[in-house]
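May I ask for an example protein's residues together with how it folds?

___
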Amino acid sequence: MPICPPLPISILKLFRQLAFIVVAGLWSVWPTLLSADVLAGGLAGGLAGGLAGGLADYRQLSKTSHLVLDERGSVVSSLRANQALIPASTVKLVTAWLCLQHWGEQHRFTTSFYYDNASSVLTVKAGGDPFLISEEIAIIAENLVAAGINKVTAVRLQTDLYQPDLKVPGATTTDNPYDAVPSSLAANFNTVNVRVDGNSVTSAEPQTPLAPIAKTIGSALQRSGKYRVNTGQSSKYAEKYFAELLLALLKQHGVQVANTIEWGAAPNTTPLYIHKNTRTLGEVIKGMLRYSTNFIANQLILTLVAERTGRPADFELVERYLASLLSSELQWSSFTLLEGAGLSPDNRLSAVQLVQVVEKFNRWRHLLPEIQPGFMAKTGTLTGVKTLAGYVTDDQGSELPFAVLINQPVDASMPAQVIKALVK
């Protein structure tokens, strides 16, 4: 009987993620799980990559950098470790560390709700929660009803935590879920999940009512089928989608609702209800790192920067904030970070800088994905870019911090192969 060769690591990683999503029933929860980073690393890298080999091929390349330290911080191996290269999605380690350092692993994002008894106007004050999925909005509706709401004449949205209509550096404008625009009030990662059958549009998931925006988006799709697409490039359109879902869920509880949605400031009174997300920051970050979710990463960095600066966040403010903070706190120089997900090809980090972040992340390394046995690490993939940073277990069982950046077309498995060879 012929023996089949082993599948590339990147393909095995992709299959494991697909199996986990299906078994755990997470398709509705993580619409951006298989982001461009995961798909490109799993399929393009595993099946069609450039150089396929390990250390010998790696040493022929010029646009590479790596650093491996032992448990005492001494250098195990280093190559051009101070050279700034494109880090791709390993930038998410920076975002995750900064957020965990600021809020703590047990932090829960909040959204505040105000109700005027005289006018029956419900006001929502956005808090930048990146994980307001349908199940969370259903909990909100239940608690608002329990608080005594039985009529809503209008929903007013205060969404000034971010600047409107943000353009993520490096992102494209497709309708793919991973190209969803950030907004300080976001439902289902600013995506809709619809089933189109001729002229009929229905919700493709039982927990999510068919909102008017979802119906409009579905009606514009050309062919029958099931689609998950983003809500477009307008942040107000995305914010309105949240309000529509909330109204629909309130109506299911017997609340008399009108479909008036407006924008304005919340009253200077005590909120009727403050919703704390059922997921902790640690749980959100663990999923973000495992599935390389660009939307969540940029929601996190925008919310962090808005809170730390007291100003509505945009990506210019993100760039300035990160430049100032990392220069002062880690004494970094010669680096560029334009956003929090690693989408931009203009981002630049060195292996030294990434390893610094990995070491800072040590207390939270249980949140890192195990990409293969012995590797707790974050991958990064852009066109012509493969990166990897985290911890590798050597033959003695020691967990060593490392980073490797390759800015040339290679197979997705090369970064791990190189590190594995270096620590033998």
Remarks:
- The chain is about 35% helix and 20% strand.
- The domain at 9-104+283-422 is CATH 3.40.710.10 (Beta-lactamase).
- The first strand starts at residue 64 and ends at 69.
